[in-house]
Amino acid sequence: DLAKLQKECVSVETSIEQKRLERHNLLLACKVQNVQIELLQGKLEEISEALTEEESTQATTDVFELEAAFEIDYSSLPTDLKTIFFFLAFESSRKKARICRQDFEYVKRRRYDLFNQCFEHVSVKIDQIYKMMCQNTSAQAFLSPENSEEPYLDGIGYNCVAPGKRFMPMDNLSGGEKAVAALALLFAIHSYRPAPFFVLDEVDAALDNTNIGKVTNYIRDQSRKNFQVIVISLKEEFYSKADALIGVYPEQGECMSSQLLTFDLTSYPENTRREETLQPQQED
Q1: Which residues form the RecF/RecN/SMC N-terminal domain (predicted)?
Q2: How far is residue 130's CA from residue 141's CA, in Å, rounded to a whole number?
Q3: Final residue belonging to a domain, choices 193, 223, 257
Q4: Which of 63, 120, 164, 228 is deepest in the core (most CB within 10 A)?
Q5: What is the mean pLDDT, run by run of 10 residues, along the chain of 284 residues?
Q6: What is this structure's pTM?
Q7: What is the DSSP string of 227-268?
Q8: What is the rounded CA–CA span in Å between residue 84 and residue 79?
Q9: Tell me, what CATH number does 211's domain have?
């Protein structure tokens, strides 16, 4: 759209320059042929004889600015000529208004189509993803625009029905239910134009162990097929399901610095990871 508008601006500027040149040639013809025209402001004698390619752009601009101040007196024209003149001006303005209206309607329609294309995709995906994350087909998630005619002008309503519960406003859901709903929305929007990877910062903070298991199962399943995920987490129930761990710790010295520890979990069976991570604590 920006490139299109830039082209239109260049086209309009070119048209304006062409009109200025045509006006200059008409005034110059009146001067050369000694055609007397009434000027309310300016004099024909001030008009340059000719504009050539050798003249500088600045000189041409100066001539056009000088002639722009000329004001022609049309009061002496016959009534029929005045009518034709104003009619042509009116028709020209109406044509420009029609073109502007058509351009506006095109942009409006294009905006609506692009928004709806994304909205319809996300509306379908969010319910599917929410069911997968909750691991329950009774779970529901749906979007509803506040303005159906121009949905991009107002808000979008988002509601979820958690498994085994009745419908209630989003504000009345628990912190964990809100977190699962927010992740479902995130993944649904992502599915429209996928990114190569996610960085999730403590998204499990409000989740209990049951919901952590559901969310990690969904993320692990999707990371095998659709995207990669880097998760910052302090909960063992979450990071024990990862393929690899990266630990950050401070190191004292002349100045404090951060160091990294890495640990590959892919060689450990899924059902023994938690026991492996718990073993040092049990020995203590």
Answers
A1: 52-254
A2: 6
A3: 193
A4: 63
A5: 72 79 80 76 72 60 77 68 62 79 89 91 93 90 89 89 86 88 92 86 88 89 85 88 88 86 83 48 37
A6: 0.59
A7: -EEEEE---HHHHTTSSEEEEEEEE-SSS-EEEEEEEE-TTS
A8: 9
A9: 3.40.50.300
